[in-house]
């Protein structure tokens, strides 16, 4: 008789013995990291490889209200859980990723809405710029995911922050960008001063969230100059805020002052062979 | 030496030196047998009882070359280097029929699936809705949407628009399916892609209407209606994936975004 390898036996031997244990509990206290929120989901994260979907499952272990709470919490600097809401019980990747994606789409939609409102008010024909969508994608993902990963890499290289996971870095940046969504919706209004004030508020709120969360990590370094990194982060944030304003919220009403110039148009026409 | 016909209780006989007449295949149990199908996501989202029963009999996978044996229409899953692959088996010998019959059958199947997705039947059997997934339908719908949108775009941007639409549909369907899996839903990967691709169909209709009608007061309601229809059809599909009710909004939200951006691109043509 030949032996047929039963793969399920191997799975039973390794891994969490909690698999057979008690029924799912609702207690927050004795939640094991593997058993997600007492719901009976057993994640196979130990057995999964990097390319398997299960490897990432514990990053998405959140409910709707948790995500919404974390998003709204970034708007209120005085809340007691300002620096901890997105980390308890574990940082998630759902909020940051969809926050960034929503931001991209909001920027594109509000920008084209602003363009059409302005064109309607100045009675000129509308030509939408679809390239704005790809610009938005590049800018937001590079800043929201690329910069935290780079910062995490730099800190790892320097040797501090052994306890700061890459997921936490991305979480901070992702939730921090949430404030730009209401800002961009309000920026449809084509008044220049109003837009600059809004962008300033957005910069301040999201910048403060970033600084409040990153500075404690930088403080844990032995070398003093590492704290200057926070200046670099603030400068980068200011650059991104400026880019948002200039790229997406620059549509203003053009009105003709004075009579139309009959010569100018013809000059151009004659110069073209 | 005389060999008795092998029965179910035949033990494995120690081979002699003169075993020329011993046929290996006649010995029951000799050889690898049917390999167990790899199901890497076995543990996900199931109660502990499942993992306690390892002795699941391996499902029979028999693919006959002459295809006159088992015509099984269900997608067969195999594991190839740790990656799960699903293939479809037609069950009929398709080499000799005229081309119109082949294409006609595929078109009919696309049409059937379209109807199933867009007008889902509420009776119990509807959960089997897209077992027989295919990606031709979503491809055709996606290309149609891209063409309709890029035809009316400004001249220098029409290629960009076409590219954006294709990329958004492909990447969007991928991301939403993976997201649903990550949130704990039990959805097969290609089935998810197929369903989300088919749900783009109402937006195709809206794009067609928007091609010809320029009045915003007609295009806006049509686009919004098409968007709502898409969401309803794909939420129906997500219903069957048994995601926890407290997270269902998290799974539906990416759909809202995904179809909204397409509807927006239709609106601002």
TrEMBL record, chain A:
User: Could you tell me which residues belong to the region Disordered?
Assistant: 1-39
Where found in the cell? Golgi apparatus membrane; Membrane
**Out of the domains of life, which is the source?**
Eukaryota
Entry's family note: Belongs to the YIP1 family.
Query: Transmembrane segments in this chain: where?
Result: 97-118, 130-158, 170-191, 197-216, 228-253
Q: List the GO molecular function terms.
A: small GTPase binding
- Mind telling me which GO cellular component terms the entry cites? Golgi membrane
Q: Keyword check for Zinc-finger, yes or no.
A: no
Query: What is the topology of this protein in the membrane according to its UniProt annotation?
Result: Multi-pass membrane protein
* InterPro entries per the UniProt record, alphabetical: Yip1_dom, Yip5/YIPF1/YIPF2
The name this protein goes by in its record: Protein YIP
Source species: Multifurca ochricompacta
A biological-process GO annotation: vesicle-mediated transport
UniProt keyword Transcription regulation, yes or no: no
- Domain Yip1, first and last residues per copy: 82-243
- Which keywords does this chain's UniProt record carry? Membrane, Transmembrane, Transmembrane helix
Q: What is its main location?
A: Golgi
From TrEMBL, chain B:
Q: Where in the cell is it found?
A: Golgi apparatus membrane; Membrane
Transmembrane annotation, as ranges: 133-153, 159-178, 190-210, 216-238, 250-268
InterPro entries named among the record's database cross-references: Yip1/4-like, Yip1_dom
Compositional bias (Basic and acidic residues) at which positions?
Answer: 39-49
Region Disordered: which residues? Answer: 1-80
Keywords, alphabetical: Membrane, Transmembrane, Transmembrane helix
Statement: the UniProt record of this protein carries the keyword Secreted: no
- Tell me, which GO biological process terms does this entry list? endoplasmic reticulum to Golgi vesicle-mediated transport
Here the segments flagged for biased composition (Acidic residues) are 16-27
Major site of localization recorded for this protein: Golgi
Membrane protein topology class = Multi-pass membrane protein
Pfam families on file: Yip1
Which regions are flagged for Polar residues bias? 1-13, 63-77
Q: Which domain of life is it from?
A: Eukaryota
Cellular component terms (Gene Ontology) = Golgi membrane; trans-Golgi network
Segments forming domain Yip1: 126-265
Per the record, the similarity remark reads:
Belongs to the YIP1 family.
Q: What is this protein called?
A: Protein YIP
């Amino acid at each position: 008789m030949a032996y047929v390898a039963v793969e399920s036996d191997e799975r039973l031997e390794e891994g969490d013995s909690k698999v057979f244990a008690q029924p799912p509990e609702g207690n927050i206290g004795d939640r094991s990291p593997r058993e997600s929120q007492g719901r009976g989901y057993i994640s196979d994260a130990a057995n999964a490889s990097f390319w398997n979907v299960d490897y990432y499952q514990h990053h998405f272990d959140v409910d709707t209200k948790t995500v919404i709470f974390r998003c709204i919490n970034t708007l209120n600097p005085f809340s007691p859980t300002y620096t901890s809401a997105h980390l308890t019980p574990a940082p998630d990747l759902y909020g940051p990723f969809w926050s960034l994606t929503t931001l991209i789409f909001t920027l594109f939609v509000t920008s084209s809405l602003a363009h059409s409102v302005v064109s309607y008010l100045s009675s000129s024909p509308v030509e939408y710029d679809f390239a704005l969508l790809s610009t938005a994608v590049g800018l937001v993902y590079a800043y929201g995911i690329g910069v935290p990963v780079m910062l995490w890499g730099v800190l790892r290289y320097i040797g501090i922050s052994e306890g700061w996971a890459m997921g936490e870095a991305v979480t901070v940046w992702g939730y921090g960008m949430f404030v730009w969504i209401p800002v961009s919706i309000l920026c449809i209004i084509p008044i220049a001063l109003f837009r600059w004030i809004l962008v300033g508020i957005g910069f301040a709120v999201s910048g403060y969230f970033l600084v409040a969360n990153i500075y404690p990590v930088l403080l844990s370094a032995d070398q003093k100059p590492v704290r200057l990194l926070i200046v670099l982060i603030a400068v980068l944030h200011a650059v991104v805020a400026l880019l948002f304003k200039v790229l997406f919220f620059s549509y203003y009403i053009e009105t003709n002052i004075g009579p139309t110039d009959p010569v100018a148009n013809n000059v151009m026409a004659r110069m073209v062979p | 030496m005389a060999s008795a016909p092998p029965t179910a209780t035949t033990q494995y006989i120690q081979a002699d030196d003169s075993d020329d007449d011993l046929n290996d295949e006649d010995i029951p149990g000799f050889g690898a047998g049917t390999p167990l199908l790899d199901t890497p996501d076995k543990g996900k989202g199931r109660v502990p009882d499942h993992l306690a029963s390892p002795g699941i009999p391996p499902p029979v996978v028999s693919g006959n070359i002459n295809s006159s044996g088992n015509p099984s229409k269900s997608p067969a899953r195999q594991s190839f280097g740790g990656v799960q692959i699903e293939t479809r088996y037609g069950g009929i010998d398709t080499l000799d029929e005229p081309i119109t019959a082949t294409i006609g059958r595929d078109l009919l199947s696309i049409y059937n699936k379209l109807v199933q997705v867009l007008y889902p039947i509420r009776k119990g059997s509807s959960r089997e809705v897209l077992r027989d997934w295919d990606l031709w339908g979503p491809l055709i719908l996606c290309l149609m949407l891209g063409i309709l949108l890029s035809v009316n775009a400004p001249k220098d941007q029409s290629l960009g628009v076409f590219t954006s639409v294709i990329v958004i549909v492909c990447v969007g369907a991928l991301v939403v399916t993976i997201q649903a899996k990550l949130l704990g839903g039990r959805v097969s990967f290609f089935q998810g892609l197929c369903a989300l691709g088919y749900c783009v169909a109402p937006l195709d209709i809206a794009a067609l209407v928007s091609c010809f009608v320029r009045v915003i007061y007609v295009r806006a309601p049509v686009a919004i209606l098409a968007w709502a229809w898409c969401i309803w059809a794909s939420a129906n599909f997500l219903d069957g994936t048994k995601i926890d009710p407290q997270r269902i909004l998290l799974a539906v939200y990416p759909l809202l975004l995904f179809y909204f951006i397409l509807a927006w691109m239709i609106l601002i043509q």
